[in-house]
Amino acid sequence: TGFVLGxxxxxxAGTLDGxxxxxxxxxxxxxxxxxxxxVLFGAFGxxxxxxxxxxxxxxxxxxxxxxxxxxxxxxxxxIFVPGYGLATAQAQHxxxxxxxxx
Length: 102
Fold this sequence. Notes:
The protein is mostly helical and 102 residues long. It has helices at residues 2-5, 8-31, 36-41, 65-74, 84-88, 92-101.
């Protein structure tokens, strides 16, 4: 709109905003170890990828609370690795209580 209105301040502000976005894109590409051309044009001509959850699944085995208690009692060290699912399930308090019991 700076060119339409003939306002130099808007032209300069828009240029700075666009350039800062370009710099952030370059920094993000370096952090991901990808080139800017790969990020911009990488999706063209590629095959569709599988949706999340359609890949190979692991084997799940249900265990009782008694089995878990025995396994934790025999363990020398227990490491809890919190992730997104822990916060989503709001289970951080239960993990803290379990850690205090151990």
